[in-house]
Amino acid sequence: GAGVSQTPSNKVTEKGKYVELRCDPISGHTALYWYRQSLGQGPEFLIYFQGTGAADDSGLPNDRFFAVRPEGSVSTLKIQRTERGDSAVYLCASSPTTGTQPQHFGDGTRLSIL
Amino acid sequence: SQQGEEDPQALSIQEGENATMNCSYKTSINNLQWYRQNSGRGLVHLILIRSNEREKHSGRLRVTLDTSKKSSSLLITASRAADTASYFCATDWGGSEKLVFGKGTKLTVNP
After folding, report:
1. Does B52 touch chain A (CB under 8 A)?
2. Are A4 and B33 a contacting pair at CB < 8 A?
3. A101, A106, A107, A113 alpha-carbon torsion, rounded to 10°
4. Is B99 touching A (CB cutoff 8 A)?
5. Digit-coded pLDDT (tens) for B3-36
6. Quick one: how many helices (H) and strands (E) in chain A?
7. How many CB atoms neighbour CB A54 within 10 A?
8. A99 — contact with chain B (CB < 8 Å)?
9. A12 to A9, A41, A46, B12, B23: CA distances (angstroms)
10. pLDDT of amino acid A2
11. Does position A1 have pLDDT exceeding 60, yes or no?
12. What DSSP string describes chain B?
């Protein structure tokens, strides 16, 4: 596809469960970013990858959150022991390289923890 | 924590009018970007202005940057109903790779 693809678009689960959110970036983009957006707020940075490695994970709120990008393309954001406060829209973005340039966003995964 | 603060938080105008949104930030930056977000969708990049630039145009958009005041403005001229969306400014925090967003301005353009 032409754009960043995120699946699922919606995820509803119970507190305490494990969830995985997938991001398929634009083909050839080496930089991949995860953000979290709460209602009425701007996106907040979580982590970014340059290739396969996490170059900056300073935005991950705690050790229940983890992200991987094993082959330098698709990335998975993993959340263990989910809490109601994890409910938000999780956005993924990619760019051709790192550095000063626009980021291309997917439509996000809306995560609801009951 | 969020770097930028946009104002106003919400703006309602009539089609054909101009819309001006402002953004303030706290740290030094290499560049500032503006994004648009339609309800339930991801963000779409509008324009990027570098710290050594003072003004930039793209179609009906005009962006200014004042690094001495740590502020930027986005002007949309001759607005259309399709411009209805939330608009966010984003900065590279101290030149880092991550973008730091403000809370956004929700623009409503009434037909």
Report:
1. no
2. no
3. -110
4. yes
5. 567 889 999 999 999 999 999 998 888 899 999 9
6. 0, 11
7. 18
8. yes
9. 10, 21, 21, 34, 35
10. 81
11. no
12. ----EEE-SEEEEETTS-EEEEEE--S--SEEEEEEE-TTS-EEEEEEEETT-SEEEETTEEEEEETTTTEEEEEE-S--GGG-EEEEEEEEGGG-SSEEE---EEEEEE-
Q: How close does chain A come to B23, measured CA to CA in Å?
A: 13
Interface of A with B in 48-67 (CB under 8 A): 48, 50, 55-56, 58-59
Tally C-beta pairs within 8 A across A and B. 65
Q: Which of B30, B42, B98 is the closest to A108 by Cβ? A: B42
d(CA A4, CA B5): 27
Which amino acid is located at B106 in the chain? K
Residue that the structure tokens 């980021």 belong to? A103
Rounded-to-integer distance, Cα A35 and Cα A44, Å:
5
| The pLDDT of residue B109 | 97
Place of tokens 């607005």: B79
Give the per-residue SS3 of B46-60: EEEEECCCCEEEECC
B32-91: pLDDT as tens digits: 999 999 999 999 999 999 999 999 999 999 999 999 999 999 999 999 999 999 999 999
